[in-house]
Amino acid sequence: MILTPDRYRRMPWANGKGVTEEMLRIDGPDGLVLRLSRAQVVEDGDFSLFPGIDRSLTVLTGPGFDLEGDGLALQARPMLPVAFPGDVPVRAIGVTAPCDDFNVMTARALPRPEVRVMQAGQVAWGDWLVLYALGAARVGERALPDRALMLVQGSARLTEGRALAVKLEGLDPDPMRKIG
After folding, report:
1. Topology of the domain covering 8-107
2. Which of 6, 31, 56, 133 could be disulfide-bonded to 144 (CB atoms 3.0-4.6 Å)?
């Protein structure tokens, strides 16, 4: 399945200080299971809290920034995913220019997702993969437009372009029926 930007939803941040483009969301009986989104960080400030959620953030554009919180000090740099708990107060500091970032949020009961940058010729695999095109790309013989998501079960070979690969384990065997 391929989701293109015309299907994404824009919504205000939980803390009211920005806007998120929600690309993919799966909810279960206990709430959020998986959420993929893109947002822009334009100034220093607090991140929204998400109890029971693990987060991964990858800066896509801009110079990056630091994330600091209780016992947490991370450098969010371009194309280097960083992971942190969603229920720990975290603050972006050192924002010198607008930065677009890609966010992965998963219920803590799931295994932590793996996020990596893929180049043409590389293969990724897992129970489920989500590939996010960083420019026009191709997965096998299928075209993946810029900023589109592709949900794949098993493995995928990126034959052209670049993409972020999100490896997901422990999801419902048919997450497609739960996409909201």
Report:
1. Jelly Rolls (2.60.120)
2. 133
